[in-house]
Amino acid sequence: MDDAQAGGGDNHHLDDYERLKRLEEAKTNFLIVTAHELRTPLTLIKGYLELLKERDGSDDRIIRAIEDNTNDMISVVDDIVTIARMDLEEIELKIESVSTLELLDELIQRLEEMNEEWGDKVSFAMNDLRFEADRRSIEKVLMNLLTNALKYNSPDKKVEVKLEPDGPDHILITVKDNGEGIPDELKGIIFDEFFQSVDSPLTREHVGMGLGLSVTKRLVELHRGDIWVENNPEGGSIFYVRLPRRYCGDVRT
């Protein structure tokens, strides 16, 4: 094979790569547009549910069921958009000084907005700390872990959340539930995208796309942090998130 033929082969492979790259970007953009289109009617449903709550004679159980499922769908849509933007490297972190106590107030408010009963089903223990992070990303990390824990938790016990120093340079977040726990064979894949597609008693009982923990892991890693899960000796699971107190990475993925 002469040099011209070899060069032609390289160009052919380069063209294939560029074509695949454009197809991948088109697919990701399609997901973002579709997710936004889905979010609009879901937001309208939420608005009408608020109106129904104010009417006498409304069945609270039915409204709560519709509201819970609508919130689940909104969460899935948000996760799709987040993952798609990460794949396109469009996630830009806005690093600021975050107060743990202010973060706590925002978490409680968001939980009660999603489900009026959830605020009473979580116990918080937080030191008064400050750390550098993208506030919205850390809120999403905590909300994903909290909603996941509430989904699997024993109904007569509270989910426990702690945020405390871990040495001079890190903070440690723990989210503990009292559910059935995670089988050892699933611990290595629960942070994978579409984990829920794996057939197991855990995934059959709770439907979903399995994106929440994947998004959580990627957001933690953007902050140069670590996330892992262990079984709770008292039953259930404990998720750990370890973050640096001073952000030391780029502000773009």
Give a quick precis of the structure.
This protein has helices at 3-53, 60-87, 100-114, 135-152, 201-205, 212-222; strands spanning 95-99, 122-126, 130-134, 159-165, 170-176, 226-231, 237-244. With 253 residues, it is an alpha+beta fold. It is globular, with a radius of gyration of 21 Å.
Please describe what this structure looks like.
This protein has 253 residues and is of the alpha+beta class. The chain has 2 domains: 3-87, Signal transduction histidine kinase, dimerisation/phosphotransfer (DHp) domain (Helix Hairpins); 95-244, Histidine kinase-like ATPase, C-terminal domain (Heat Shock Protein 90), CATH 3.30.565. It is 51% helix and 17% strand. The protein contains 6 helices and 7 strands. The strands form 2 sheets. Strands 2-4-5-7-6 form a 5-stranded mixed sheet, with helices on one face. Helix 3 packs across helix 4 (135-152). It is globular. It starts with a helix and ends in a 9-residue tail after the last strand. It catalyses: ATP + protein L-histidine = ADP + protein N-phospho-L-histidine. Pfam families: HATPase_c (PF02518), HisKA (PF00512). Keywords: Kinase, Phosphoprotein, Transferase, Two-component regulatory system.
Shape type: globular
Q: Give the N-terminus to C-terminus distance in angstroms.
A: 42 Å
Quick one: CATH class of the largest domain?
Answer: Alpha Beta
SSE pattern, N- to C-terminal: HHEHEEHEEHHEE
Radius of gyration: 21 Å
Tell me the CATH topology of the largest domain.
Heat Shock Protein 90
Number of alpha- plus pi-helical segments:
6
- Could you state the CATH homologous superfamily of the largest domain? Histidine kinase-like ATPase, C-terminal domain
| Biggest sheet character | 5 strands, mixed
Annotated CATH architecture of the largest domain: 2-Layer Sandwich
Helix content: 40-55%
Ranges where pLDDT stays below 50 over 5 or more residues in a row are 197-209
